[in-house]
């Protein structure tokens, strides 16, 4: 069963994180944009720290810094030192470049919409519940 589950998971993630679907941004950059965008919508005057991003993505600081540097070079984000705590680096999404992320996000949502049309709303709810349960259980086990 574990091999079947792994195979199904890999097949799903490969289908979604496919070059044709996520061609504008690499996966990690896309996830960071998603986190920053949601944070901006909730609290526009409260940027997220690089440390927060590391925790949310379960990513090492060195990998996060490389990713953020790449995003900064592309103009997707702005980084600045906190005025209250100089050790903290605040990260904001560059709203002038938002269309890069939004275009990719919309293509992924369109793919998911097509998927939902085929499986139906009841199965979709069951899948969301199962994905949530699997993710929560995985986080508990890994801790």
Report on this model:
11% of the residues are buried. A three-stranded antiparallel β-sheet has the order 1-3-2. It has six helices and three strands, in the order ααβααββαα. It is globular, with a radius of gyration of 17 Å. The longest helix is centred in the C-terminal third of the chain and has 22 residues, at 98-119. The model has no long low-confidence stretch (mean pLDDT 89). It is mostly helical and 143 residues long. Strand 2 and strand 3 form a beta hairpin. The protein has helices spanning 2-16, 27-42, 50-57, 61-73, 98-119, 121-142; strands at residues 48-49, 77-81, 89-93.
Map the helices and strands.
Layout: H1 2-16, H2 27-42, E1 48-49, H3 50-57, H4 61-73, E2 77-81, E3 89-93, H5 98-119, H6 121-142
Antiparallel strand pairs: 1-3, 2-3
Helix pairs in contact: 3-4
